[in-house]
């Protein structure tokens, strides 16, 4: 464990690297999934296609993808752009389903009454459907967050600086403390991100904490989807 | 005035929901569309605010064909109240009521002040303003729904089975409020229900519909009760069972000035007051409604 004491600044640096890579990926996955999820939910034909495509995509092994992407994109193997795009693709693959499910979970009575009141299609989407899909989106985003934080360790194999470097380096040089530092800090980041997302959700969706009755009207809006 | 001219609606799946419907809905009165489930009431109602567009035929409001009015603009000028209130679960009561004024760009403070006034109008405690819809009872939610429907001070208020999901006592209460509001606010109300008693209670004009929104009979409650146009209508209003044909009880002793009435099933249906020891006849316009109401309660008991 000496290693940890001697390398605190390095641990801090790698942790920040890890955050710098993963935080934008989580945000991007969310933002890009909204329009795709909307399309999936809007048209019956597109739903099946989009959802199976994203499911299949998630099954692609990550390492080959990260090796292949630079070739496809013409970026350098260690370019952060390459890593960001690769991780975001996985994030989207997870998040699209949550978005589509979330939008589908909105009570049709509510959307109808919004229409009847004179919401235009776009204002109805942004001000009614998307916020009401919020709890399901939130559940999905938490999964994306954890998955991204752990997946980002893999890109260390390519030499991209993340906490994953502690695994590769620690195994190579047989330093147990270094491996532990990598594991623990990855978990800490995942937990902190999760807390931030949950708190953000509470802040942005005050109606969900006002009462449990909000989600327990029988047969309505209870289709909360188990993420993964 | 709302006028339907030979309106048809066939849904993409081939369902003919409305077949050649023509009717005039006079201003500042309540017209009730009543009929059994699936006969096309909601479809008719939703054609008035263009949530459903007719396959052919025209609908005019005060002489203007609504097909020429932008749907969003039209909807913001018409109040709409539906079963289960359709309140926005993520907005507080006060914001729900103020939804349309806020959409139209009314300053928030003004919209909120007006929303509080409306809460009083519909008999809601102002302390509920900051609650979310899920924190209200069904009856309170319906009142919020009505307040929201009134928020833009519309000339027309569309109500689709607004009291279908509340218990009979609360419903009776809400019906009374609706009558009061109509007297005070003088709106053109189009009210949909499948409850004939509610229709007779609330309607100045009642339109009884058969499948495909074909008009079985149209008239005042008194006209329909006195003269059912067909077997279907008689059946629908319960006249054939003698449910509404009341006779003075020959066995029960008159209780003071009141005489007990019995229905065809032999059950006590209510009493009729006989001031001065004899039955008053002649001035009868609101009476048929209250009698029909008593009948129903006895019949259902
Ligand atoms: N969007 C739609 N697509 C296809 N058919 C529809 C659609 N909306 C309604 N219908 C059909 O049109 C007919 C009339 O429906 P409508 O909702 O107007 O009935 P309703 O009188 O309001 O019934 P209820 O009392 O049950 O609410 C029904 O047969 C219904 O199945
Ligand atoms: Mg209906």
UniProtKB/TrEMBL annotation, chain A:
One record GO biological process: transmembrane transport
Looking up InterPro entries in the UniProt record yields:
ABC_transp_perm/SBD, MetI-like, MetI-like_sf
Record's keyword annotation contains Lyase: no
| Residue span, ABC transmembrane type-1 domain | 15-197
Kindly state which keywords UniProt assigns to this record, in alphabetical order. Answer: Membrane, Transmembrane, Transmembrane helix, Transport
Return the GO cellular component terms, semicolon-separated.
plasma membrane
* Name of this protein: Osmoprotectant transport system permease protein
Provide the species name: Glaciihabitans tibetensis
TrEMBL record, chain B:
Q: Which keywords are on file for this protein?
A: ATP-binding, Nucleotide-binding, Transport
Q: Which domain of life is it from?
A: Bacteria
Give residue ranges for domain ABC transporter: 2-237
The record's top EC class is translocase
GO molecular function annotations of the record: ABC-type quaternary ammonium compound transporting activity; ATP binding; ATP hydrolysis activity
Assigned EC number: 7.6.2.9
Q: Where is the composition biased (Polar residues)?
A: 282-301
Task: Cite the residue spans of the region called Disordered.
Answer: 273-301
In this entry, which stretches build a coiled coil? Answer: none
Q: Which family does it belong to?
A: Belongs to the ABC transporter superfamily.
- Name of the protein described by the UniProt record: ABC-type quaternary amine transporter
